Amino acid sequence: MCCLVSVTVVAGPKIDASPDRAKTALNLGLKQLGTIKPRSAKEISGSNWTLGCETLDRDFADYQQYKEYIVPLGIKTIRLQGGWAKTEKVKGQYDFTWLDTIIDDARGRGLNIILETDYGNTNYVGGGGTDLAGGFPTSEEALAAWDRWVETMAARYKGKVRDWAMWNEPDINKKHQPGDIAPFNIRTAEIVRRVIPDARIAGLSLASSSPKFFESCLKLLADKGKVDLFNWFIYHGYEFNPDSSYQNVEELKATLAKYSTKAKMRQGENGCPSEVATKFALSFHPWTEYSQAKWDLRRMLGDLGHDVESAVFTICDFNHLGREINRKGLLWATADKQVEKIKLAYYAVQNCVAVFDDTLERVKEPVVGVVYDKATASFAYRNKKSGQNLVVLWSNLGTPDDSFVTRPAQVVVKNLAVKEPVWVDLVSGRIYEIPAERIVKAGEFTIFKEIPLYDSPVLIAEKELVLK
């Protein structure tokens, strides 16, 4: 008698769980106490981040090749794209098998899903484009078919998918103006809401972070009384220096506040290549795995510090047929979609997620001052239960580079007690002792002298928050 046993095969390299899994040239001359211990998505109750698992609708990537890497990363929500053209290959006939397999697997892993409604379908005259920058469906027949597909998909995944997003980056098609985007968003969102009354819907999904363009869309939604259809509004807004985005982000938030007291801004897609690209966002720059890891951390923690939900784009490189391989993945993949390497950024993101979960809250009053020879970003956080504190800071002037040479900074915190402070590098996850002579307490102030700082986020943290 023989038994059939289901065996899960990891398609690519094994995840390194050793203390030196994230290797860099960082050399501080301080005593190392340990490294951040990774935490899987199952060990984290919630966090600020979504992980991109896109382009499966166009077969640019293969979910089966990277699915085993998702949960160990620690992010609990993934972004998927619905794929009208892949689902309705024969006019009037739906085959959701491909998407069922992915959604059921992700849910079985305890993951939440945000499902995007795109792109068009050339089975219909005026059916819209089937890839990035493709146009909306425009003919009466195609729009009716779009409505049927959205309704069928919403009904199929009711009880499985609560979070939905609108057509991806409609504004990079220059034919799409606010007068086109807003009505199409209303049309689609109303179908989802009718089928799933408690759905949470992200509107617009704009490539741009332009406050002017965003407000033009919002005005049209408001004129129809439809702003409250949406729980979030998505922007992307790639920048070589991720920190240069936040003037626009604050303007987006202020603009939204004029129209809604409920909806929030959400960064829906941002990532950095690990090598030179020529076809996509952040192209023609000598990116490496080092600068990618720094960039991703600065975007994640900049978004967290500005109170916007944030996406990491993307889990795996994908072969955008007709263009090139998009190397923004945390995993390095071949042209035929095989995972061959775990990039440094995977471990850096894993370190970040292990620390910054929903047990922390941002300390919003000004409590941190940094004396440094370059501009810096800094944010303070407190554990909601224990009251233990940490500060994250980095040099935010310019595009991240490959150097791991630090320069000394003086950090002053006010009314932010840290009993056993340690210094943490988030790229490598290394945790170091801060020598006692570098810590001076003066009433409500604590001064940390000669704190190593560079163009990637580091922490001054209560030891118990990071060393477990």
Could you characterize the architecture of this molecule?
The protein has 468 residues and is an alpha/beta fold. It has two domains: 40-356, TIM Barrel; 362-466, Immunoglobulin-like (Sandwich). The chain is 25% helix and 23% strand. The strands form five sheets. Strands 2-3-4-5-6-7-8-9 form an eight-stranded parallel beta barrel, surrounded by four helices. A seven-stranded antiparallel beta sheet has the order 1-20-19-23-17-16-14. β21 and β22 (445-453) form a beta hairpin. α6 (178-195) crosses α7. The longest helix is centred in the N-terminal third of the chain and has 18 residues, at 140-157. It is globular and about 75 Å long. Mean pLDDT is 96; it is low at 1-9.
The gist of it:
This protein has helices at 63-66, 70-73, 84-87, 97-108, 140-157, 178-195, 211-223, 246-257, 289-305, 344-355, 463-466; strands at residues 32-35, 49-52, 77-81, 112-116, 163-165, 200-206, 232-235, 264-267, 309-312, 318-319, 325-326, 331-333, 339-342, 360-363, 368-371, 376-383, 389-395, 407-414, 421-425, 430-433, 439-442, 445-453, 458-462.
